[in-house]
Structures are given as C-alpha cells and as structure tokens.
Specification:
The protein has about 240 residues and is of the alpha/beta class. It has one domain: Rossmann fold. Helix content is about 25%, strand content about 20%. It has six helices and seven strands, in the order ααββββαβααβαβ. It has a seven-stranded mixed sheet, with helices on both faces. β4, α3 and β5 form a beta-alpha-beta unit. The longest helix is centred in the first third of the chain and has 17 residues. It is elongated, with a radius of gyration of 26 Å. The relative contact order is 0.14.
Length: about 240
C-alpha cells in the first residue's frame, strides 16, 4: 500500500485575500497613509502589533532604527504574542502601529491599555481602521466570516479617539483614503477606481480606510509651595512722652 502523503495545512484566508487584487489595492493605499503618518515620529524602537500584509510593508517606512513585528500565534513575526498581553517592558517603545489589529480583537480596550503601558511618554500610536459606514461596511455585515476575512467589527475613528483620550492620549490627526466599491475581479478595476474618485462627492469618509495618529501625553505636576504670610500685628506698643 502506498503511504498517504500528509495533508498540507489550509492557507490563511486573510493572507490569501491580501495577496489578491483588492487586497493589494488596499495595502498600497495604507502604505501611503502610514508613510505620511510616520514622517514626524522619531525615537529608537517601533513595534507593529499584528501582521497585515508583508512583514515589512509598514515597518520599512519607520525612521526608527529598531523595528519589531509582534504577531499572533500562528502568524509570522519577530515575536509571537497576544496583542493584549505583550512581552514588552513598560515605557520602552517609542511608536506602535496597529494595522486593523483592533478590528480582530474581542477586547480592543485591553489592547489599547497595553499600548499605553509599553509606550514612553510622548510616544505615538498609529491605528489603521475601516470606516463603519459605506460599501465595505455593508459587505462586512453581509459576509458570515467577516470582510476582509476574519475581521470582527469596524470601529469608527471617533470612538477610538474617545477611548484614547480616556487613557491619556492626544489625538493629533486622522487621515482618510477612499477605497471604492469592494469588487474583487481585476476586470472591474476601472469601476473600483471610478467609485474611489467619486467618493468625496458623496461623503469622502464612506467606504474609506483611515489612519488615526495619537500621542501619549505625560503631564508633570509641579508642587506649589504655600506663600509665607507676614505675622499679624495684634497691637502696637505705645510709648508715652515724659
């Protein structure tokens, strides 16, 4: 009897989708957003939490000398860890990239708390996300496995900004890029490009991807010493003439 060959593991649906036509269009737009967002981010270490596309698709645009990809178990990265329990020292990272990481998490608040913990004071976080309205959001809600594959929810930039402010961040900027209709076939590329160009006429943030950039603020409290008051004069000595 001929021995049976081992069954190869199933390909990751998300990885296959990102390598497809629509996924490559998305990554190209997001690389442009990330590269602009990282222009004024400096320091020593930049960490990307969650693999999205090629390992160096976004980290290659960081001006920081040390770049680390922290991937979920089963994905490729320099370090493997869950996003809400990072094996990183507190206040040791200068910049954190979250490319759609929060949209895969059951507890996105916990991930943001970890980001706040590991960032140094005045460190930056850059978050990629999908607008929760428009054609991409509609397809996501109509697809049982999520769209793109595995995505649990779309989070608005406004909601993320509120969460970050509670954690002591200041939202610096939010950039948007229209995606057009989520049509997979390369033959329909002209329609996708046309719908992306027309998106600003119908509300440019519908069916878009955004990059939210925030900074961790640290406020130094300066103790105020109480002012010394001159002793009160209860009475004056009266010297009589003789």
């Amino acid at each position: 009897m001929t021995p049976s060959l081992p069954i190869p593991p199933l390909a990751d649906p998300l990885e296959g989708w990102l390598q497809g036509h629509l996924g490559r269009l998305l990554i190209d737009k997001e690389i442009h957003l990330i590269s602009r967002g990282l222009e004024q981010v400096f320091g020593t270490t930049c960490v990307q939490i969650g693999q999205w596309g090629a390992m160096d698709a976004f980290l290659a645009h960081a001006r920081l000398p040390r770049r680390v990809l922290v991937a979920e178990p089963g994905a490729c990265g320099d370090c493997v860890s869950h996003a809400a329990a990072l094996p990183l020292a507190s206040q040791s990272i200068d910049a954190v990239l979250l490319p759609h990481t929060l949209e895969f998490e059951l507890e996105p608040h916990g991930v943001l708390r970890e980001v706040e913990r590991v960032l140094v004071g005045e460190g930056h976080v850059l978050i990629l996300g999908f607008a929760p309205f428009g054609s991409w959001a509609l397809r996501h809600h109509l697809t049982p496995a999520g769209f793109p594959p595995g995505v649990r929810q779309f989070l608005s930039a406004r909601r993320l900004g509120d969460w970050l402010r509670v954690l002591g961040f200041e939202v610096l900027d939010t950039q948007w890029a229209p995606l057009g209709w989520p049509l997979e076939s390369p033959a329909l590329s002209p329609l996708v490009a046309l719908s992306a160009r027309l998106a600003p006429l119908f509300g440019g943030r519908l069916g878009s991807v955004y990059l939210l950039k925030a900074k961790k603020r640290v406020y130094t409290l300066t103790p105020i010493r109480p002012r010394r008051r001159a002793p009160r004069v209860l009475g004056q000595a009266v010297v009589g003439s003789t």
